[in-house]
Write a structure and sequence with these properties.
The complex is a heterodimer of chains A (270) and B (283).
Chain A (H helix, E strand, L loop, with lengths): L14 H26 L11 H14 L1 H33 L1 H15 L7 H8 L3 H25 L3 H9 L4 H38 L5 H10 L3 H29 L11
Chain B lengths: L1 H4 L7 H15 L5 E10 L2 E11 L4 E5 L6 H9 L6 E6 L9 E4 L11 H5 L8 H10 L15 H13 L5 E5 L7 H18 L2 E5 L3 H7 L2 E6 L2 E7 L11 H15 L4 H17 L1
Classes of the chains: A mainly alpha (270), B alpha/beta (283).
Chain lengths: 270, 283
Amino acid sequence: MSGIQRRTIKTPLSFQAIVGHALPWVVPIALLVLWQCASSHGMLPSRFLPAPKAVVSSFIELSRSGELWTHVRVSTMRALSGFAVGGGLGLVLGLLTGSFRWAETLLDTTLQMIRNIPALALIPLVILWFGIDETAKLFLVSLGVFFPVYINTFHGIQSVDRGLLEMGRTYGLSRWALYREIILPGALPSILVGVRFSLGFMWVMLIVAETISARSGIGYMTMNAREFMQTDVMVVGILLYALLGKVADLLSKGLERYWLRWHPAYQAAR
Amino acid sequence: MSTVFASREGLTQEELTRQMLAEGRQYSRGVAVSMRDVSIALGGRTVLENFNVEIAAGEFVAIVGRSGCGKSTLLRSIVGLETPQAGTITLGTTAQGKPDVRIMFQDSRLLPWKRVLQNVTLGLEPSFIPHAKKVLAQIGLDDRADDWPAILSGGQRQRVALARALVHDPSLLLLDEPLGALDALTRIEMQELIESVWWNQGFTAVLVTHDVAEAITLADRVILIEGGRVALDELIHLPRPRARGSSRFAALEDRILERVLQRRSIQMNEHKTHAANEDIDAH
């Protein structure tokens, strides 16, 4: 579990502690310095890879003009609406097949078959169906997000402790109360694992969709920059995707920490 | 503990029983349990066959037997978790009508995502919170009301499970080896707690246990189940609180244990039974 936190002993910062904190950053900073040196001495042509300084200044320029934020907003909206549609469907269908035997018999085999089709292999068909519009992007992101949420919701519900359900029944809980008090919270750790997986897929699908064709968004910005050999803008776009992915991951970790605060794995820091 | 029973020391068994019954009638919410010709099969295997037992209102009955003898199934059928293929299980009624039956399992079955107090008030209106707090105080866990179950010890979890059952003011409390997983010291504490709660509240209690000594410590009556039937039904005439060290206790424990283990040296067994009875009569 990634939620388990390593205990760090809080003592006054000794030399060893400082070294300990700094050590993980030594290699990235060295690489960055090396990269900058190679660029400024002409060993790394800027049409191949821009200097870090150029990337930073192009980032500042783009954000000052407001262009960057427009693209970030468009991409984020696409990602979130795809996540809402695909994740919502996955959650609903997962709850359905997990809770009702008839729904599992009816739907699960079909869904498992569809799952085995790589979503990206559908791109030619998707372009044929939806053109290169927003709908195509929404479809691809939703598809990528759907399965991790669906499968983990299904398994989460199936693996709820039968003993707790039995206990709930002897306490006279109604079906809805059993669902609300026992089944949903019991499935939540698994559902959240699905959400974290699906956030990863969300960005991958979005990048692919925006790279195929777009009139705005980070993918558009990056592909546009390629036309004009603006490698610095391209690197800014790539780093933005990384940053947004990290933010999404942090958010879902935060959700886990809040919703699963009862879980022993999340109480290590107490 | 001793304060609970202080007024009863020095009474004879007869007087004690009469006093208990009299008091029991005053505030007892216990109900009688009657099982007639009950047969239960699980997965094609007959667990109980034509099983008959009558449990009086307010009585504390312990059911012992080897693993797989059907004692847990018996308990689960009373609360409706197993349905008998044949026979009837009847519970008495209380002034409120349908009796409130609660069961405690070997594992506490607390909801890990609910804090202690929310676990105790499971399925109840928020208006029960003050009562739940009172019950938690009664079992000595009022300071843990806002803790997650995950950070409690095994004994504390079982106490919370007991509180969860007691909040409902049950007329019948079924205990399915609730102390089986606890260490020896915690067990003794829990036994004392269960006995005092039962004594003060007057519900009917049915305890399933592997531990013959535990059965004798707590129960008015020990029933041994063997081959799906009652093999032994023994009234325990020992004044409460029961001292485990006493010779009468030891003799009883010996006798029931022998029977559970089915040491077939019948003559010796009978000899021992007589000795035990004489021992009791002598007191």
